[in-house]
């Protein structure tokens, strides 16, 4: 590895130590369906987001609930604090499309229709709410 590349890689690693996130790769649901649930909890407080996901009937909500719990656990491990004592919220969440499985479905008159089975990657960031109670 070159010197410039190593410096930028070290800077990126130091920056990631202050970020609290969880990532879920190759989820076998379409990105559009996952984005519906992601938009629902973006900016929400963690406990409220967990309850919204728990009682949602969508299939993507179960996967996002597990991912959010993982992000909170990552926050607890990095900061060595309990999540109950601090106000955490979902700061960023984004859904990217992943690989597509291309299949054929039989169609009339010897033809075949293409079916695209989509999958996605989800990244969820958690941060603490900053309150200015000590400035008075």
Provide key terms for this protein.
alpha+beta; 5 strands; 136 residues; two-stranded antiparallel ribbon; Ribosomal Protein L22, Chain A
The parts where pLDDT drops under 50 for at least 5 residues are none
> Any idea what the CATH architecture is?
Alpha-Beta Complex
Give average pLDDT, whole number: 92
Computed CA radius of gyration, to the nearest angstrom: 20 Å
CATH class: Alpha Beta
As laid out across the biggest beta sheet, the strand order is: 1-5-2
Please state the structural category. alpha+beta
Shape: flat
CATH superfamily name?
Ribosomal protein L22/L17
Indicate the percent of residues in helices.
40-55%
Based on DSSP secondary structure assignment, what is the total number of beta strands?
5
Largest β-sheet summary: 3 strands, antiparallel
Overall tally of domains = 1
β content, as a range? 25-35%
Note the quaternary state here: single chain
What is the distance, rounded to the nearest whole angstrom, between the alpha carbons of the first and last residues? 51 Å
CATH topology: Ribosomal Protein L22, Chain A
How do the SSEs run, as a string of H and E?
A: HEHHHEEEE
Specify the number of helices: 4
Describe the secondary-structure layout.
Elements (H helix, E strand, L loop, with lengths): L2 H14 L4 E7 L3 H11 L4 H9 L4 H21 L8 E10 L3 E6 L5 E6 L2 E9 L8
Helix pairs in contact: 3-4
């Amino acid at each position: 590895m070159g010197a410039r590349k190593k410096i930028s890689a070290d800077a990126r690693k130091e920056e990631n130590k202050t970020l609290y996130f969880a990532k879920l790769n190759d989820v076998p649901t379409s990105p559009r369906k996952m984005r519906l649930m992601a938009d629902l909890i973006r900016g929400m407080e963690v406990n409220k987001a967990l309850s919204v996901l728990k009682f949602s009937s969508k299939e993507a909500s179960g996967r996002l609930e597990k991912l959010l719990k993982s992000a909170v656990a990552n926050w607890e491990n990095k900061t060595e604090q309990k999540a109950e004592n601090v106000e955490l919220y979902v700061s960023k969440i984004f859904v990217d499309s992943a690989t597509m499985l291309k299949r054929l479905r039989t169609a009339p008159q010897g033809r075949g229709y293409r079916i695209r089975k989509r999958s996605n990657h989800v990244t969820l960031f958690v941060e603490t709410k900053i309150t200015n109670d000590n400035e008075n």
